[in-house]
Amino acid sequence: MSDTPRLLAELNDRSREVFRRVVESYLASGDPVGSRTLTRDFSERISAATIRNVMQDLEYLGLLDSPHISAGRIPTQLGLRLFVDGLLEVGSVATADREMIDSTLGDDSPDVASLLDKVGAALSGITRGASVVLAPKHEEEPIRHIEFVHLGDQRALVVLVFADGHVENRLFTPPPGLTPSAMREAANFLNALAGGKTLSDLRGTIQHDIDLRRREIDSLAAALVQSGLAVWENAGEQSERLIIRGRANLLEGTSEVEDLARIRHLFDDLERTRDIADILDLTETGDGVRIFIGSENKLFSLSGSSLVVSPYMNADRKIIGAVGVIGPTRLNYGRVVPIVDYTAQLVGRLVSDRGRG
C-alpha cells in the first residue's frame, strides 16, 4: 500500500484517465475492459492503438492484468488499492439509502442485540453483500441489575441486566452450602455497589469493598461474589459478538465452481475466527472507513473479497464495535463507503443513547 502514492505520481494525465476508466468499467460490469470500449468513451480523439500502449504500460507497472490472451484488462489488487487511495470519488450517502437505513434502525428494538441484527440486515439488503457487525463487549457496558438464582447444590445462575437493555444468563458453580438468604444478600450487595459501573470496574474494586464491608455479608455470600466474578472472566462464557447477515448475497448469481468454493471458504474463515476483536484491530489506526482488498485483509485468508469496515464509538469517543460489508473486490466502493460510514455513526449514537437510558 505504501507504493501507491509513488505509482500515482508516475502516471501522466492520459495514463491516469485510462486507468480510472478501466477500473470504473470493471467495477460496474465485472468484465475485462478492451481498448475499443475505451476509445468510444473518450471525448477527445484517441486511437485504440494509443490506448493499448497505455494499457500495456499500466500492466507493466502491475496495475492491470490480462486474464486471457487477446482479452481486455482488469485491475490487479495493487491497481484497486491505487484507485481506492487516489482516484475514488466518495460523496455523501444517497438519499434513498439513508432513508432505508433510518427506517430500519428505528428505536423500537427491545435491546442492542436486536438493533444490531437490524443493522446487519439493512447493510446486507442495501449493498447486496454480506454484512459484518461487531457488537459492543458488554463487559464494558454499565450494569443496571444483578440477580443470583439457585438451581441446585452444584449449579447457580447469575442474571446480568445491562443499561442498554441487554440481558445475559451465566451458569456457575456456587460455593458449598449456599443458602437462599446468602444469595439474596450477595445480590443486594452487588446491586448497591454496581450502579453505573461496568463488570471491568467491579473487578477492580470488588475485593476492596468486600474487605471493607465484610461484616455486612456472611462468608458464603462473599464466596458467591468471588465465584461469580470468576465466571464473568471466563472468555468461553461470553456471548457471541459477531453478527453476519447476507451470506446468500455473496452466492447470488455465482455459477463458477471456483467462485462458489471461494465464497464458502470466506464463511469457513468467519466461523473459525475466534478472536473477533481482529475486526476492531483493523479499524483502530484511525477514525472513519477503512477498505481492505483481497489479501490485505488479515482477518480472512480469502484473497478474492474486500472488506469495507468502520468502527463505531460511544459517547466518550471510545471504539466499542464495528460495522462493515464483505463483497467481491469489484465492490461499488463509491457507494458502499458512505453507507458504511453513515451506518457506523448512526449505530454509535443509538448505542450510546441506550447506554444512558
From TrEMBL:
> Which Pfam families is this protein grouped with?
HrcA
Q: Which InterPro entries match?
A: GAF-like_dom_sf, HrcA, HrcA_C, WH-like_DNA-bd_sf, WH_DNA-bd_sf, WHTH_transcript_rep_HrcA_IDD
Q: Name one GO molecular function term.
A: DNA binding
Domain Heat-inducible transcription repressor HrcA C-terminal residue range list: 115-337
Q: Which GO terms describe its biological process?
A: negative regulation of DNA-templated transcription
- Note the Gene3D superfamilies from the entry: 3.30.450.40, Heat-inducible transcription repressor hrca homolog, domain 3, Winged helix-like DNA-binding domain superfamily/Winged helix DNA-binding domain
Protein keywords: Repressor, Stress response, Transcription, Transcription regulation
> Its family?
Belongs to the HrcA family.
Question: What does this protein's UniProt record list under function?
Answer: Negative regulator of class I heat shock genes (grpE-dnaK-dnaJ and groELS operons). Prevents heat-shock induction of these operons.
Question: What's the name of the protein?
Answer: Heat-inducible transcription repressor HrcA
